[in-house]
Amino acid sequence: MIIVMAANVPQASVDRVVSEIERMGCKAHLSRGTFRTVIGAIGEEGAIDQHRLTTLDGVEKVVPIMTPYKLASREFHEEDSVVQIGGRSTPRQLVGGKHALSIAGPCTIENREMLWRIARHVKEGGATVLRGGAFKPRTSPYSFQGLGEQALQWLRECGDELGMPICTEVMDTRQVELVNQYTDMFQIGARNMQNFDLLREVGKTDKPVLLKRGLAATVKDWLLSAEYVLSQGNRAVILCERGIKTFEDSIRFTMDITSIPVARKLSHLPIIVDPSHAAGRRDYVGALACAGMAAGAHGTMIEVHYCPAEAQCDGPQALLPETFASLMTQLRLIAKLYGREFPN
Amino acid sequence: MIIVMAANVPQASVDRVVSEIERMGCKAHLSRGTFRTVIGAIGEEGAIDQHRLTTLDGVEKVVPIMTPYKLASREFHEEDSVVQIGGRSTPRQLVGGKHALSIAGPCTIENREMLWRIARHVKEGGATVLRGGAFKPRTSPYSFQGLGEQALQWLRECGDELGMPICTEVMDTRQVELVNQYTDMFQIGARNMQNFDLLREVGKTDKPVLLKRGLAATVKDWLLSAEYVLSQGNRAVILCERGIKTFEDSIRFTMDITSIPVARKLSHLPIIVDPSHAAGRRDYVGALACAGMAAGAHGTMIEVHYCPAEAQCDGPQALLPETFASLMTQLRLIAKLYGREFPN
Amino acid sequence: MIIVMAANVPQASVDRVVSEIERMGCKAHLSRGTFRTVIGAIGEEGAIDQHRLTTLDGVEKVVPIMTPYKLASREFHEEDSVVQIGGRSTPRQLVGGKHALSIAGPCTIENREMLWRIARHVKEGGATVLRGGAFKPRTSPYSFQGLGEQALQWLRECGDELGMPICTEVMDTRQVELVNQYTDMFQIGARNMQNFDLLREVGKTDKPVLLKRGLAATVKDWLLSAEYVLSQGNRAVILCERGIKTFEDSIRFTMDITSIPVARKLSHLPIIVDPSHAAGRRDYVGALACAGMAAGAHGTMIEVHYCPAEAQCDGPQALLPETFASLMTQLRLIAKLYGREFPN
Amino acid sequence: MIIVMAANVPQASVDRVVSEIERMGCKAHLSRGTFRTVIGAIGEEGAIDQHRLTTLDGVEKVVPIMTPYKLASREFHEEDSVVQIGGRSTPRQLVGGKHALSIAGPCTIENREMLWRIARHVKEGGATVLRGGAFKPRTSPYSFQGLGEQALQWLRECGDELGMPICTEVMDTRQVELVNQYTDMFQIGARNMQNFDLLREVGKTDKPVLLKRGLAATVKDWLLSAEYVLSQGNRAVILCERGIKTFEDSIRFTMDITSIPVARKLSHLPIIVDPSHAAGRRDYVGALACAGMAAGAHGTMIEVHYCPAEAQCDGPQALLPETFASLMTQLRLIAKLYGREFPN
Question: Is residue C190 part of a domain?
Fold first, then answer.
C-alpha cells in the first residue's frame, strides 16, 4: 500500500500515518520528494485498513499494490484452470486451457416438446452443454417468470437422454437447494453478480458456477465476485462476458471484448462469451461469438430456437438451428488457430 | 405499439404483422409513407408481445408507446405520494410532497456505544430517521460483513429510546422475516435493485421500502423495480438516487441529478438522495446533498461518524456530527425555497 | 512518480528502472516489500517520461503523484480566480469567488429582430452577458450551420446597445481572428474541448474563454485543456459543465454535478453550468440550474426564446422569457445562501 | 416521422400538430388508440423540423423513421464500397469488400533513421500502408507535439522508396493544404471526429479519409460525421473503431467490437480497427486485432516500434516488429475464414 501525502503537510501528519501503519502490524517506509512525502506500508496488505488511512489528515490518496482477490488470481494459480461439468448422469465436459465449450439451448423452457426439439438441434449443431431457464429474471413484474421446478425436471430428463450436462440460472438463495437437485452447473445472472449471499450459497455446493459479468462491473469487481464463490471451497468458476452498459444505443449491451485478455491475464479461471444477451438481436450474434473466440475465450453460450411452420421464432436474439450449426463450424476453425478444441 | 417496417418490404410481410397484432387481440392501423409502412397496434399494450413482433420478417423496429410500469406512474396517481415511516413504537415521519426527510446514522453498526453516540448526534443535528447497517454488501469476501441480528436489536432499542424510526438494509430473501421484526423501513441496496425475488418479498410486507438506484439502471429500469414492490400490494416505496457508474474517475459514482426531475415527472413516488455513497469522500457530500435538494429531492440519507480523541474517524465518506448539523441548516434553507419542510 | 514492480522480478529489472530514473535527472528511492519492490522517482515530475518507464521489463504500473496541469491547479493559485468579461464597449462583468454570472440568449442568431427581442427579455430577466450562435456545430451536415459574420455584427451591436458583454462560439482556428473582432468572450464547444490547435489560438488572444467540458472528458482532461489556453498566456478561462455521455437515455446528457466541487477543489478557475444543453428539454432546465448553483457553481448559461403568437417556440430546450426571469429569482436566493451574488 | 401525443390531450393539440406537418409539406396520418393518438408524418423526412414538432403542446415524443445520413447509408449504396489508397507515386492498395488492409508504423515520427527502420520492418511483416504522426494531438500542452512538415517529408520519401502509400493525421483546417501535398490518406483522430470544419476541408480533397470514432460517439454520430466528408464530394471514407470511453479502468478505452457488424449493416463504408490506441498496452493488442477481424473488420492499423540494444522500446502500446509479423500471420488466417484477403 502506498500513501501519497498532500503537498506541504506538517511533519505531525506524516508521523500520524506512520504510527497507524505500525499499529496495523506493518512497517512504514518514507520517500521524501521535492514537494511531497510518499509512504510505503510494507507487510501483509490484507492487514491494512485502506479506508482508515484515507481519512487521516494530510493524506491525498492511497494506492493499493496487491490484488484484493487471491484464489481467483493467476499469481495464486499460474496454469489455466480446467473446469469439469457433468460426469454424473451424463458424460463430463471440460472448459479451460485447450478445452473449448459450447453451451446452447432455449432462453426459457416453455414446454416439454419445445425443449426436446431445441436440445436435439443444438446437440447436432455441436453444443455439448444444454442450457434452459426455469426461473427468469425479468425487468418487468408483468412478464413471464418461468415454469420453476417443472422446467428443471424436463431439463434434467432431456440432458440425461441426450447425454448433455445441463446449466440453468439460480436467482435466489432459497432456490439453491432445489436447483442443485437437478442441475450440473449453476448460472449466476448479470444482475445478481453482486448478490453476495447467493454467491456464498452456490460456493458451498460442489457444482460449477457460470458467473456472468454485471452490467456495471469492472473486471476487478467480477473477479472479487468469483472470489466469494471460491472462498467457500468451490473452485469451479467459469467467467462469462455478456456485455456492459454504455452510451451506445444501437445494441442492448456493449460486449467488452478486452475483458477476455484482461481476465485471462489476471486470473486462471476459464472465460466464455454470451453473444446472445450482449447483442439482443440475432443478426449480430455470429460476429460477436467469433470475436470472442478470436480474443481468446474458452467458449460460447448461445440461445437457439427453431421456427415452426405455424409460428414465428420466439426471441429476437435466438439463432435458428441451422445458423447455429454453421456458426459452430466457423468457431471450430477459429478455436483451432489458437490450439483450442471443441469436443465433437 | 408502433411497428416500423423496413424499406420496400413485400406486402406479405405487412399482412403477417397485421394478422399477428389481431391475433393478440388488438387492431392494426396502417400508415403508408413514401418509403416505408408504419403499423400502429391499437388496444391494451400489455397484450402485445413486443419481442415476437420484433422477430417477424421485414420489421425494422418496434416502438412502445405506453410506460411499462403502471402503479409507479404519475399517470396512475397524479398527486405526489406521501409515505409514512414509523408510527408504531416511534413517532411517524412523512416523506413526499411538502414533507422532506433526513435519514442519518453510521454506515455499519460496529458496537452499541458507538451507535447510541452517533444516533444522539444525528438527532441533535436534525435527522428524524436513524440508519445503520446490520448486513453489509461488501465487494470483497474478506471485508467485514456486519453484526447481523445483534445489530438489529441495538438499532431498534436506540430508535425507540430516541423516538426515531429506523432503516436498515436487507440483502437476501431469507433475511426479510428477521429484519421485518425490527425495522421500520427496508433499504434495498443498489446492487440488489434487480434482485427480483427480494423485491417481491419486501413487497409482501407492510413496511416502507427505500429503493436505491442500480449502478447501471436507467430511470425506467428503476421504476420497473419499484413496480415489483408495488405490484405485491406495498405502496410505500421511496426512491433513492446514489450515483451511477460512468467513466469519471475522480469520484466513486456520478450522482445523476437529472434523475430527480425525470423520476418526479414520470412517477408520484418520493425521491431522496444519498450523497455519501455517490461521493465516497466527505468533502463532496455537502455539495451533492444541496444539489439534490435544489433539484427537487424530498430529502437526504447521510452517513455520520464522530471522531473520538483516541482514534481517527472511520469511513472516508462519513460526515462529522458538527458538519452534519450545519449542512442540515443549509438544507432547511434550500428546502424552504421549494415550499418543502424538514420536521422541526 | 511511483513505479510498482511485478511480483518476484529479478534484481536486474529493478536496477534498470533505477538507472533510467537517474538518466532522467531524478533520484530513485527503493521500498522492498514482502512480495514487491516499489520505486519512488524523486525530482521534477515533468522530467520523467512515464510512458518509457511503463514499458520497461518487470514494471507493473506507474503512478504519477503530481497533477499534470500547473497553471490551472489550485496549488499554483490558491485563491479563486475572478475573470472579467467585457469592459471595452460595455460595462465589465465579473465571475469567480463571490461573483455569480448569468449568460443568456438564443441558441442561434436567426435574424436581427429576434436577437434584439430576446436580448431585451434576458436583460430584464437578470442576465448580464448575452450569448448567441453565429457558427453552429451540427451533427448533421444537412442542418442549419449559422449566419456567420452577419450574426456577429448583430450580436456586437445588440450587446453595445443594451450594455451587455457578448459571448459566441468559435469552431475553427481560421475563425479566431474574425470572431475576435466582435466578441467579448470566446466559447469553445464540448466537441472541440480537445481541438488543441483551437485552444492554442484562443490562448493567444486577450479575451476570456468559456471552455465547455467534453462529452467523454474527465475533470482531469478538462483541466488539461484549460492548461492549453493558460499556457499561451491567456489566464481568463471559465469552465462550463454541460453534461457527459452516459447510458441514461431519458435525457440527452447527464449533467455531472460532482464535477463542480471536484473542479473547484483542484482548480482556482471559475465554473458555471449550462443546463440547457445537458437537459435538451426545457422542463428540466430549472432543476439543473438550481442544482448547479447549490453545488457551488459561479453561474449559469441558459438558452431563452420567446414564443410569438404566430409561431411555436423554437428549440425544445429554450426557456420562455418569463420562466427565465422567475428562475433567476430562485437562483439569486440560492446564490445568497453561499455568499455569492449575481449583479443587481 | 411519428409523433406520439401525451395521454388525454385536447383535440386542438392534435389539430395543431397536423397543421404544422402540412405546413412542412407532408401529409399527416392519424391513429387513435385507446389512450393516445399517434400521428404519422408522411413525405420527405428531411423536410420535417423534428425539434419544432417536439416543442408543440401535447407532444410526448417524436420518433424519426429514416436514417439522418444518406450517402453513408447502405440503403443508398447496397454493395460494400472499395476504397483505393495511393496509386500515384506508390502502388495502390484497396480496402473494403474482399480486400483487407494492414496499416502500420510508428506512433510519432521522431527522426529519419527510426522511421526508415520501422517502415522496413512493417513492410516485411505484411503491412501495405505506412502510418506515422507529424502533428500529434496531446492531452497535455507540455507533451511533444510532433515534428510537422519535416516529418511529412520523411514519410513521403520513405513511402515512395518502399512502395507503400502513406497515412498521417491532420488536426487543423489550416494544415489540410500542407498535409495534402504529402499524404496519400488523411487520418481524422477520435477527438476531432466532430470537428465539422475539418471534416468539410478533407471532404474537398481527393484523398481517402480514415475517420476514427469519437470516444463518446454512437455509431449513428459516426456515420453522420462520415456524411460531412461524403457530402463535400469525397466518397473515399474508411471508418476506424478505436474504442469508446466506459467505466472499465483496466484499459484506456473499451474497443466496441459490436460497432463493426452494426456499421457494416447500416453503411457500405469499409471499417478497420485500431487495437493499439484502444488497448493502450501491447499485451492486449493481438487479441483485439484478431477479435476485430473475426467480427468482420476490413483490416487493422497497428503501432510498431523496434527495440534497439541501447534503449528500451518507446510506447507502451507499440508491438515489436517480430510480434507484428506473427500477428499478421494469424490475421491472414482469420481473414481467410471470411473470404477476405490481405495483399502480400
Answer: yes
Greatest CA separation for chain D: 81
Query: For position D32, which CATH number holds?
Result: 3.30.70.1140
Q: How far is CA C103 from CA B7, B89, C166, in A?
A: 46, 53, 9
Instruction: Note whether B196 and A171 are within 8 A (CB).
Output: yes
A49 and A108 in a single domain? The answer is no
Which residues of chain B neighbour D43 with C-beta distances below 8 Å? 33-34
CATH number at residue B327: 3.20.20.70
Q: Say if residue B155 is in the same domain as residue B46.
A: no
- The reply to whether residue D42 touches residue B33, judged by beta carbons under 8 angstroms, is yes
Is-contact D241 D264, C-beta < 8 A? no
**The one-letter amino acid at D235:** R
- Beta bridge pairs of residue C2: C40, C63
CA distance B3 to B60: 8
The answer, yes or no, to whether residue C241 has pLDDT greater than 90, is yes
Query: What is the layout of strands, in order, in the sheet containing B27-32?
Result: B27-32, B37-42, B2-5, B59-63
Interface probe, candidates C39, C65, C67, chain A, greatest A C-beta count within 10 A: C65
Indicate the SS3 state at residue C268: coil
Q: Give chain C's domain count.
A: 2
- For residue A312, pLDDT over 80 is answered with no
Is B204 in the same domain as B289? Answer: yes
Does any domain span residue C54?
A: yes
The per-residue pLDDT for B141 is 83
- The residue whose grid cell reads 455446493 is A205
Chain C residues inside the 8 Å CB shell of A36: 65-66
Residues 214-233 of C with CB under 8 A from B: 216, 218-220
Q: For position B143, what pLDDT does the model report?
A: 77
DSSP, collapsed to helix, strand or coil, labels residue C337 as: helix
- pLDDT in the model for residue A339: 93
Same structural domain for residues D31 and D172? no
A57 and A139 both lie in a single domain: no
Nearest to B108 by CA among B315, B310, B246: B315
Instruction: Mark whether D39 and D164 lie in a shared domain.
Output: no
Residue A68's alpha-carbon distances to A27, A45, A81, A272, B143, in angstroms, are 20, 9, 20, 23, 10
Residue B258 has its nearest CB partner, among C260, C279, C330, at C279
| Residues B133, B97 contacting (CB under 8 angstroms) | no
| Lowest mean per-residue pLDDT among A198-207, B25-34, D69-78, D297-306 | B25-34
Residue C330: inside a domain: yes
pLDDT, tens only, A121-135:
999 999 999 999 999
What does the DSSP 8-state code read for residue D130? E
**Would you place residue C309 in the very low, low, confident or very high pLDDT band (cuts 50, 70, 90)?**
very low
A-chain residues near C249 (CB < 8 A)? 249
Tell me, yes or no, whether A68 lies in a domain.
no
Is B304 in contact with B131 (CB distance < 8 Å)? no
Distance from C-alpha of A104 to C-alpha of A277, rounded to nearest angstrom: 13
Distance (Å, rounded) from C-alpha D83 to C-alpha D211?
13
Residues B138 and B253 in one domain: yes
Q: How many CA atoms lie within 13 A of D125 on its CB side?
A: 31
Are both D330 and D182 inside the same structural domain? yes
Q: Which residues of D touch B245 (CB under 8 A)?
A: 247
CA distances from C199 to A228, A237, B247, C134, D224 (A): 49, 51, 24, 19, 25
Give the angle subtended at the CA of A45 by the CAs of C44 and B106, to the nearest 5°: 100
3-state secondary structure A131-165: ECECCCCCCCCCCCCCCCHHHHHHHHHHHHHHCCC
- Claim: this prediction has a pTM higher than 0.95: no
Domain extent at residue B331? 83-337
